[in-house]
Amino acid sequence: MNNYNSIARLVGVLYIIGTVAGILSVVFTGPIAGSTNVLMEVSANVNQVKLGTLFILIMGISLALVAVIVYPIVKKVNEALALGYVIFRGALETVVYIISAIWLLLVVVSKEYVHTVSSDSSSFQSISHLLSNSGEQIHSFTMIIFSIGALMFYYLLYRSKLIPQWLSGWGFIASIIYLVTGVFALFGTVSAFVLLPLALQEMFMAVWLIIKGFNPSKVNI
């Protein structure tokens, strides 16, 4: 029992670490990635970009660890879905985060490029535009992959009753909203407010797991 409580607390802590790191990555890199002159902005804020990259990696690793840690428990409900959750959240999503980090690291290299190309040149503008658009598309695909993994996870939690079903149901519905938002984001901008239900649910669930742990009557499923 103590082992399951420890796992629950660890999952809760990892969710909080991942969320905080994700927010900080946006704080540090959001204004730069959204700039019309990405290369010029990066050349002036190299350390800021490096910190943002570090937080992206922390977020990816934290969320990937959740999938690995809970797999032995949720596989008792449905092994195929549990494995799918590990693939989407532990593998695919992590790869996308790494790609995002590589993109930011490559942008750092552009500092030297900016020294040799004037900011009003067509080549500079083209590269800036390309980097901005690629960052947006990567973010959209991350949302889709994240949502698919989250749907599997919350379905498994709902079936297992390891946490209250209203809480896992909240996560399932919020994940659907997140998935739809990610699809629409591929074709245009979306309001960040539609992402709030899942963010609130994850933080509430994280605190619940840290304080309450898993349902003791369901840990052996």
Structure summarized in a few sentences:
It holds the Pfam family DUF4386. With 221 residues, the chain is an all-alpha fold.
In words, what does this structure look like?
The protein has 221 residues and is mainly α. It has a domain at 2-141 and 205-211. 82% of the residues lie in helices and 0% in strands. It has 7 helices and no strands. It has helices at 2-33, 38-44, 46-74, 79-116, 122-160, 165-185, 196-211. It is elongated. This is DUF4386 domain-containing protein. The chain crosses the membrane at residues 12-34, 54-74, 86-109, 138-157, 169-187, 193-211. Keywords: Membrane, Transmembrane, Transmembrane helix.
What does the secondary structure layout of this molecule look like, with pairings?
Blueprint: H1 2-33, H2 38-44, H3 46-74, H4 79-116, H5 122-160, H6 165-185, H7 196-211
Protein name: DUF4386 domain-containing protein
Keywords: Membrane, Transmembrane, Transmembrane helix
Transmembrane segments: 12-34, 54-74, 86-109, 138-157, 169-187, 193-211
